[in-house]
Amino acid sequence: ELKEEFTRILTANNPHAPQNIVRYSFKERAYKPISYVDQMAVHFSLNGNMILKDSDEGRRQSIRLSTAAEKAPVETSAVTSEDTEIKNEESTGDTQAAGDEEAEGSGTAEVAEAAEAEEPPRPRVKEQKLANQFNFIERASRTLNNPMRERACQSEPTPCKNFSATANQWEIYDAYVEELQKIERSKEKEKTKVQIAKREEEKKKGRNLTSLESQSDDITKISKAAKIMERMVNQNTFDDIAQDFKYFEDASDEYRDQQGTLLPLWKFQYDKTKRLAVTAISWNPKYKDLFAVGYGSYDFMKQGQGMLLLYTMKNPSFPEYVFSSESGIMCLDFHNDHPYLMAVGFYDGNVAIYNVKKATSQPSYRSNAKSGKHTEPVWQVKWQKDDMDNNLNFFSVSSDGRIVSWTLVKNELVHTDVIKLSVEGTTMQGPEGLQLQTLGCGTSFDFHKKIDYLFLVGTEEGKIYKCSKYYSSQFLDVFEAHHMAVDSVSWNPYHSKVFISCSSDWTVKIWDHTIKTPMFIYDLNSAVGDVAWSPYSSTVFAAVTTDGKAHVFDLNINKYEALCTQLVVAKKKNKITHIQFNPVYPVVIIGDEQGHVTSLKLSPNLRRMPKEKKGQEVKKGPEVEIAKLDKLLNLVREPESKA
């Protein structure tokens, strides 16, 4: 045990120095750890007054002393002789014998006596004291305080007079009448002056006004002509695309076994929306070539401004209308009866109505925190029929769990909560015995095409609620639809019982709202961003996934897989966000996260109609479409009914 060695390493590090100091870096706008730590520890320090000979201050002092010596030569000689004596004494060693010292001493004494006899005695000079280099003199002076002076003046009191008089009602009345007559006379004089001045001004400005009016008329005429010219130039530039849009039918579809393709047509992009994602697309109900695109961001850490653009297929190079907003746009919807009105929902929870007829870039009507708004992003807005007083009315759904009805009353948006999405079994015990209900986050909704009060709401929890406008406290039904957020829910345009939903859990499901389980389930191997029914067939729908693919299904031809799965966006970082069918033409438009909108034409296999048989007319119309979908649904329902 005694032989054990305990090594202790001494390091130059200070054990008390902190190791994890964090300072705020203004350059990078973040807290950064400091790598270097001051390890020096001072144990003793003393300020001295010694000066090095070689330093500047030492040299200056030696020069000063030499100049003083030259001025007083006598003193310096005495000093030097003393120095030499001291040096001689120092040079003599301790080892020398005492006898030698005595001999030297007698010798020196004899020399000194001879010198004294030869030279007369010199007057003794006072020794000069060395000046203290650190002397200082303190001087102070006191300023004189100015004596206080006062100046005052006394004014004479104003003269006063007492006045008294008695007045009866008649005198008061007469005084008022006189005053009124004076006012009327002065007004008449002013009127005559103003009229004369106006006449003179009209005469002067008459000529100028006519020229300005003619100029403004010319500008409007030119702008209309310029727009037509721009469209003609674009049609010539993209002539091959225009020809494909109008006439091209993919002949190779005949040789493909029920498979179809999407032919890319125009690509719509705008410089100012490059860094924004397409968050909403909607076709205009009146002008079939016009569509609106909302721009914002789904990356909630990078929220900024938003934009609303209106494009037409007649001019793919530049938008027809441009509106900018402070907050990102998350959804929009055109009014059916007033196609120039658009309802828009923003990321900050506000809603607004834009009027395309007005030239301003600001919305005509907008909600605010004072009048009421959502507390979370607005995910979808839908116009409804006008209310009893013929006021414009639309609904909105938000992550704050509220479905709100907005009515335009006297140029103001008035809101009323229709329903709150309370989640069952999530009541929490709050302070003082309060019951706290957690709200579901609404992400999408859709109103029934025929039953006015019925609507569906998709939530972030994956549930779909069937609700009524008239019941604000409870739901008509709840579907356990998906495992992740419901991105879109939509009623079939033909069949009144069927609706479709898609989710980030990679699935698209088709439902009958009277049955709790889905009729069809499709797994698309990637999160599904949007789904849309086609306007021409009850069995055709399209979905887009985040891996950049578009999928088109026709249940009438193939119930199990898509007729077309095509890559639309090539870049890895880019994702498709929305898809919409054109109401008339066989065209879909697809928006992505880079701010681009691509239009694609459906090949003949994707819009196949029933073939004509000899001697028989092909039946067309909603009844045929409903029957076609019912036939498919019966195939799915049959096993259940047998069981």
Automatic annotation (TrEMBL):
The keyword Cytoplasm applies. GO terms for biological process: cilium movement; determination of left/right symmetry; outer dynein arm assembly. It is found in: Cytoplasm, Cytoskeleton, Cilium axoneme. Consists of at least two heavy chains and a number of intermediate and light chains. Interacts with BICD2. Interacts with CFAP45 and CFAP52. Interacts with CFAP53. GO terms for molecular function: dynein heavy chain binding; dynein light chain binding. Part of the dynein complex of respiratory cilia. Signal peptide: none annotated. Belongs to the dynein intermediate chain family. PROSITE patterns: WD_REPEATS_2, WD_REPEATS_REGION. Pfam families: WD40. It comes from Pygoscelis papua. The keyword Repeat applies. Residues 119-128, 187-204 have a biased composition (Basic and acidic residues). WD repeats lie at residues 479-512. This is Dynein axonemal intermediate chain 1. One of its GO terms (cellular component) is microtubule. Keywords: Cell projection, Cytoplasm, Cytoskeleton, Dynein, Microtubule, Motor protein, Repeat, WD repeat. Residues 65-128, 187-214 are annotated as: Disordered.
